């Protein structure tokens, strides 16, 4: 994968403002600058802004290593990025704003209300929210035709685009072409959905992995090796949680409004994660989470050979994945082909959940899934959607 040459952006967008200078804001701002856009990175916290150059350097090495860009692309990209602590100044020339503040509803609503007031009339507002929906936010702005969800993933080219009830087709078209100009893969959802498509499938897998660990049914290494071996994946679910950042994951579970895909799981996950976060064990970024970094155990030669191939660790994970995909489809969010594409592109794996289902057979899946639900390992209401969809198809 290599990025578009600088200057090959789209006509409607010349300047992009990123609100929130955390890892996601820094990651997306660097990709936009590499792709030739003028970039302004805003944060109310000047300490966060002071840390941006160091974050950009680390993210640049990741993007170079992944083949997104070359070493020579970085100096020019960094020169196109301005750091600003005043929101009105930051958005003065913005054609597009991407908001990536903490996943807290009132904060996001306040930010978008202010953005609507200070941004030029031309500016498209977008939220990079992972769990909150656009409908939770959109009513605070007047420019309903120029607001949408534009959701990105760390370490993945996939980007979700979701319009609101007032979002114009022209806005969706501009965002679709903007994503393509980043050499990313746009996925326009039919309707909004918490977790979009990829996270709506990955979330149950990650939750199931933590549940196996919490219940003492498998060790961290047994969970991840089972997934890595069977799916030819470079890391397992608990390694992925370390990559996302355990502080972010804990924050998400603390503020989500439901119990998660497994009944009663939320308090148990918080009991697992909050002490880790309290000790500063945040995952890759702090050097310790479920694994120690650098050189985590799952990257060492012989990791798969040294851990048993446990079917009782793998089956709950793959059942959670396929069931999550069926719920998304049954909810009218995306078609099976788009869902498989979201998974294969987003996770860099060779087979999506519907491909796995075809391989398993629907009848065999239902037998195992019903046992999974009976054991209290999947939300009963969503399980009903899964059964109804398979019975109809």
Number of domains: 2
Which percent band covers the strand fraction? 5-15%
Summarize the helix and strand pattern as letters: EHEHHHEHEHEEEHEHHHHHHHHHHH
Number of helices: 18
Q: What's the CATH topology name of the largest domain?
A: N-(1-d-carboxylethyl)-l-norvaline Dehydrogenase, domain 2
Shape: globular
- Work out the number of β strands: 8
Q: Could you say which structural class the secondary elements and strand pairing correspond to?
A: alpha/beta
CATH architecture of the largest domain: Orthogonal Bundle
Q: What's the Cα radius of gyration?
A: 21 Å
Oligomer: single chain
Low-pLDDT windows of residues: 1-7
Mean pLDDT, rounded to whole units?
A: 94
Helix content: 40-55%
List keywords for this structure.
globular, Rossmann fold, 2 domains, 10% strand, alpha/beta, eight-stranded mixed β-sheet, 18 helices, 51% helix, 393 residues
Description:
By secondary structure, the protein is α/β, with parallel strands linked by helices. It has 2 domains: 174 residues, 3-Layer(aba) Sandwich (Rossmann fold); 195 residues, N-(1-d-carboxylethyl)-l-norvaline Dehydrogenase, domain 2 (Orthogonal Bundle). An 8-stranded mixed β-sheet has the order 3-2-1-4-5-6-7-8, sandwiched between helices. Strand 4, helix 6 and strand 5 form a beta-alpha-beta unit. Helix 1 crosses helix 3 and helix 11 runs antiparallel to helix 12. It is globular. The two termini are 36 Å apart. The N terminus is likely disordered.
């Amino acid at each position: 994968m290599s990025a578009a040459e600088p200057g090959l952006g789209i006509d409607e967008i010349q300047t992009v403002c990123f609100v929130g200078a955390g890892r996601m804001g820094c990651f997306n701002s660097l990709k936009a600058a590499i792709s030739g856009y003028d970039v302004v990175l805003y944060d109310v916290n000047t300490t966060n802004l002071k840390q941006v150059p160091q974050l950009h350097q680390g993210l640049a090495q990741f993007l170079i290593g992944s083949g997104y860009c070359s070493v020579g692309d970085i100096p020019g990209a960094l020169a196109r990025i301005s750091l600003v602590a005043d929101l009105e100044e930051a958005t003065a020339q913005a054609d597009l704003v991407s908001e990536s503040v903490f996943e807290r509803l009132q904060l996001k609503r306040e930010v978008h209300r202010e953005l609507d007031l200070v941004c030029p009339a031309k500016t498209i507002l977008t939220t990079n929210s992972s769990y909150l929906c656009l409908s939770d936010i959109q009513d605070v702005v007047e420019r309903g035709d120029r607001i949408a969800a534009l959701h990105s993933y760390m370490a993945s080219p996939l980007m979700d685009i979701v319009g609101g009830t007032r979002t114009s087709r022209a806005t969706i078209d501009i965002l679709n072409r903007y994503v393509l100009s980043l050499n990313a893969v746009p996925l326009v959802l039919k309707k909004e959905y918490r977790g979009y498509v990829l996270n709506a499938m990955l979330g149950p897998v990650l939750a199931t992995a933590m549940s196996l660990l919490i219940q003492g049914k498998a060790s961290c290494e047994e969970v991840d090796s089972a997934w890595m071996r069977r799916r030819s994946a470079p890391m397992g679910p608990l390694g992925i949680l370390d990559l996302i950042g355990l502080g972010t994951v804990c924050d998400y579970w603390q503020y989500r409004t439901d119990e998660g895909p497994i009944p009663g799981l939320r308090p148990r996950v918080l009991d697992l994660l909050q002490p880790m976060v309290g000790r500063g064990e945040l995952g890759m970024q702090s050097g310790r989470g479920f694994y120690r970094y650098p050189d985590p155990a799952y990257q060492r030669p012989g990791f798969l050979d040294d851990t048993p191939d446990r079917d009782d660790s793998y089956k709950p994970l793959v059942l959670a994945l396929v069931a999550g995909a069926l719920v998304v489809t049954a909810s009218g969010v995306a078609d099976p082909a788009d869902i498989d594409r979201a998974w294969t592109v987003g996770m860099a794996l060779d087979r999506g959940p519907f491909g796995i289902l075809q391989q398993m057979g629907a009848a065999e899946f239902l037998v195992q899934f019903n046992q999974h639900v009976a054991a209290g390992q999947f939300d009963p209401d969503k399980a009903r959607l899964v059964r109804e969809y398979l019975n109809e198809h």
